[in-house]
Write a structure and sequence with these properties.
130 residues; mainly alpha; 5 helices; 84% helix; 0% strand
Amino acid sequence: MSHHAFAFLLIFIGGGLGSMLRHALNQANAASFGFNFSYGTLFVNIIGSVAMGLVAGWFAFRGEGGQLLRLFLTTGILGGFTTFSAFSLDVVLLWERGQTAGAAFYIVGSVAASIIGAFAGLFIMRGGLN
């Protein structure tokens, strides 16, 4: 198996594990707090973002583990757990590079466009203008 194919396999396995973790946390939160608020998603986004900061910091400042482990943990496990962690890291990196306007645009653009997209998708599936 090539290095490239092995990287995809690790991401695939990590993504499955991350998705299972997200589902387990969502189930536990629903059992504990009910369904009136998305506590599970909120907690997943926060936990995933903290974990992404820890993992990115580890690789940036310690440099140990290699590219395959980084892909397994970040793109795989955390990507399956929550893509919000990747969004959070992107914002932090823009901010740290002094691109505050870019970070603000990325935050507002991502959140607003995603919410508008979700409304549009529901609108279309409900029959649109019919």
